[in-house]
Amino acid sequence: MADALRRTLRRGLPPDRYLLGAALRHCADHLLLRGGQQLLALSFKSRFAACAFVVAGLVDVFSKCGLPSTALRLFYSLPPPQLTSNSVVLWNLMAAGLARNGDPASALRLFLDMRSSGVLPNHFSFPTALSSAAVSSSPSAVLQLHASLLRSGHGGSLFVRSSLVHAYAKRGDFPSSELALREGGGIVAWNSLIAALSRAGRHLHALHLFADMRQRGLHQDEFSFTAAFNSIEAEMAAGSGRALHCAVIKAGLVAGHVGNALVDMYARGGDLRAARAALDGLPWQDVVAWTALITGCAGHGLHGTALELFREMGGVGLVSDEVTGAAVLSCCAAVPAPALGEQVHAAELRRGRTVFLAVGNALITMYGKAGAADGARRAFDEMPRRDAVSWTALLLSCAQNGSSREALHLYRQMVDECNERPDYVTFIAVLFACGRARLVDEATEIFNSMETEHGVVPGKEHHACMIDLLGRVGKVTEAVELLGRSGFQTDAAAWKALLAAACRVRGGDLAVAEQAAAELVQAQPEDAAAYVLLSNRYAAEKRWEDAGKVRRLMRARGVRKEVGWSWMEAEKKVHWFAAGGADHPRAAEIHAKVGEMMERTGYEAEMGWALHDGAATEELAYHSEKLAVAFGLMSLPDGAPIRVFKNLRICGDCHQALKAVAKVYCRVVVVRDPNYFHHFGLDGLCSCGDFW
Question: Diameter of the chain by CA atoms?
Fold first, then answer.
């Protein structure tokens, strides 16, 4: 059509309105803004700027190209007679353009202006008005439009009926939406309501409606099955999922959106073998299906498997997107695998994906959990846009890496300077930071402001943080009083925090420890923490008989203590170490290196950390974190930081020993236990200030 217009102009002939209209439709369909601007100039030159037919095309072009204000000026440039005489198409295009560009209120006002101008709406007018009314501030707007379309005689149109069902559903008025559907609606209307119910968390209702649709013999397409899979996944109805899988195969729809939803349903439900089989059974695989499987594995704690799948996905030639990148970075944070995380970061940077909020947040978390607080800060500073998750991730990174006061400063900056609304998790992070820095007054102020200033009701985690803080500063009595306060939520986490506070060697209250242990055993009988902490407390008091009694009781009840492990990345693989280290292929070399470490530093084991009478020095010497650091000295390049990760809290003897190792060997040693990073510096000091 553009060629026809060029030929006409070359011949010196003026274009007519139909040729201009066709060229404008071409520009609108292909989003050709420059072409639309040239045709606007031509319409003025050809004196068609006052032709409603040509202006309708211009309005369509500029609306679709994201310039609704220009479209609106052109619309109102027409003389009133042109706007009120057989111009419903023009009004429809203008209203649709406003709605498309995020201004539904103006679109709804335009519909009302059209009615008041005497222009009768057609069946294309009502869908735009209904979609705009669905998000308007007026609760009765959809109802009024419903009455209007019934009076106008357009209520029987499937197109209008589907829009009405969708509008009621979007307002959350599901009874009215279903009533409109029952009065007559096609497959689009059924799909719209099922999807809306699923998004609203009303999954059983959505599945009942899906089943009703099948019983009525209505054709179900890929959108019907996708919404149903989402609800089955949320309800964890594995049997229904398999039945629906069979229906999808019979319908020949195992591809595209349905196939991806199928993989996602199995993966999120924990049936990872079925999810992998569904992925392998797809006629063609895309990045969405692989990402569904990767996130499903990650969601069930199989982070290593998720990372292997990521490598496999790259091997089949698929390029990850920002959702995959964020998921893989989260897995790198959980393992943790900082070396792989840095590679993924580099790849996301090359592809320009670090601008995505989810990727930026995952980067902050990954670097923070790897003990690289500087990397977390850089990732935060480079984000073009931040939300509460971004601030919270950086807060937690600072708190866990020994910069609690910096975390408190970030919280003030977040709230006072950036007007970012802190959420439930933000307060856990900032109270945790106050606990590490023993900032009682600041924590109390923030805790008291949660509900009054920020509308966040304190939960169990916040109460546990306050108990932990009071215990850390030796105020065990105040912690007990806080537990007994009206409205205070006491759960296992709070009792565990009180027990840990009372069990600290430095002046813990043994009677409180015994009470807290009893409460914790009652709340979580399968948790070994109560037995281990109380036994350790007795051992610290040299009450070996009581310590042994607690451990015998623990064994009699079948409660097992979690095995302590340490691990680290070296030589392009992850190495694992248990106490004693006999299972490692280089165990003899590692033991010899531990002996060299102790001899060179002059460190002697502090037997006060022995947990039973008659413990040998070797028992403390070969704790898993010491073995990991020894292996790091053997295998990492000179000067490279040694990063060790633990599943249990670092013991006091290892803490003292590693301070000496870092100083004598001139190596930065970073040990992460479940709650904290210990950065042992070249000065022989730890970032925790010997208080953890």
Answer: 109
